[in-house]
Structures are given as C-alpha cells and as structure tokens.
Amino acid sequence: MSKQKAFSSVEALRPPIDLNSGVLVYVDLISSALGSVDLVINLTELVSYGEKMQYGNSSGKDQKFQVRRLELSDKNKGFIELLQQLTVCDSVTDKDFEDRFQELSSLGDDHVICVIEDDQSGKIIATGSVFIEKKFIRNCGKVGHVEDVVVDSNARGLQLGKQIVGFLTDHAQSVGCYKVILDCNDENRTFYEKCGFKQKEIQMVKYFL
Whole-structure pTM over 0.90, yes or no? Predict the structure, then answer.
C-alpha cells in the first residue's frame, strides 16, 4: 500500500514582529562619490520567508512590482491596514492622514515613505520609510534611519522587502548620508548575513506611551 503525503507549496508564515530591541548590522559600501561608507541596517521586519508564492491570481515571477513614494490616495488602498500588520497602529481619519502626509511631504527628501502597490488588487502590499538626521560630527554628516518596513502577509517570499530596503538605502546614499541605520530582531540576522551584512552594536529604547 503506497503512502502519500500532502505538502503545502508555501510554509506557514509568521506574523510581523514589533521589535523593542534588536541588533545592528552593517555592510561597507564603496561608492565613487562617497568613498567607503558604513551601511548600518536595522530592520523591523523579516520579509523573505519560504518559497516564492502566488499573490492574488498571478505568480511572483510573472508579476513585476515597482517601488514608489507614498501618495495621499494610498490611505484608501490599505496602507494603514498594512502598518497594523507590523505594530500598534490605530485607525486614522482622512483628515489626520492628510495632515500628516502634508507635514511629511514638506520635509522633501529628508523624510521619504515608499510603497509597493499590487496593480491587480490595487492594494499596498509593502512599505518602509527613511528619515535623514543631520549632524555636526563627520563634517556635518547625515545619517539615514530606516523604519516601519513591512510586507503584507500574503505577499511574502517575493523579495519585496529587499526592494523596499534597497530603495530607502539608495535614497539615503543619494542625499549624502555616510551610513543608514535600522533595527532587526536577532532571529532575522541570518537573512541580513546572507545579504552581506554583519552584526554591529545593540539598540536601546525607552517608551513614553
């Protein structure tokens, strides 16, 4: 009597993790414009689980995803609901969303939120942000801080997280940052080591709310 086992094509996915602490990892970038640059990566979300999977009615290998900046209309495309997969994010009224959107937009390249929209469903399925800290050290240098990176639970395994992080770090480098920093959970370290990153230092945090 033959034995058969049914296998799922995709491993069960863990929910996004809200991190209170993490490790800092970095990789040296060599740029003709900037020279040797320490790239420090601190990420709140591991975004590459399991095999490539289908999202909607098309497979990841057949569908191309583009990273773009956040638009005001993205609130109606599930942007807030996507952030709720990452951490505590209460409902936001249309007015509050527009007010914050305009405030951040006024900062120009100093605060960028990027998204990936699924063209078939019209939903935002990945996002992340970077803000630029201006310092006196390092010849009045700049540091990019990457935050709030999350990929929709139904769209993981498509390398969308790598696209988001790549977009944000490229932006930080383009505006003259000497490094980019962000957090990642210790269990996600392997993902970044495979990307060429190394552990560096630790993160400390103090919450007021």
Answer: no
